[in-house]
Amino acid sequence: MRLVTTDKGQRMDMFNIWQGMGDAPDYGTPAPAPTSGGGDSRARAVADELARLELVCEAMWELVKEKTNLVDDDLLGKMAELDLADGVADGKKAKGGPVMCVKCNRPNSRRHDFCIYCGQHIRSKPFQ
Ligand SMILES: [Zn+2]
User: Would you give the DSSP letter of residue 86?
Assistant: First the structure.
């Protein structure tokens, strides 16, 4: 999260600044900006980022519902389907193992877009 220093010497992230603007909606009081590199400030930064991602997901889902005929049950069904893709209903998306190359059938790490052995494009899904 990008931090800036205000004229009063306070460190604020862009969300704090945006909330301070006149017409900005109130999304609650954000956690204070971290002041040191300790574990608490790191945990707070992760919690803040998680809260921001939750906001983005909720906004995206609201937009999808407004623009389509999808309803909450559709989302819950898809979440259950993806959750069970690894055979375990644990409420989490499995990270998964290696991706097999469709050309040379050798295993590749999921962080690669192309097969390290033959160069075949192996990333076929945006969240793979
Ligand atoms: Zn390959």
Answer: G
- Own/partner contacts of 59-66, CB < 8 Å, gap of 24 or more, are none
Please give the model's pTM, rounded to 2 decimal places: 0.50
pLDDT, tens digit, for every residue of 43-65? 999 999 999 999 999 999 999 99
Query: How far does residue 69's CA lie from ligand 1's centre (Å)?
Result: 40
Distance 40 CA to ligand 1 centre (A): 44
| Rounded distance from Cα 41 to ligand 1 centre (Å) | 43
Going from the Cα of 117 to the center of ligand 1, the distance in angstroms, rounded, reads 5
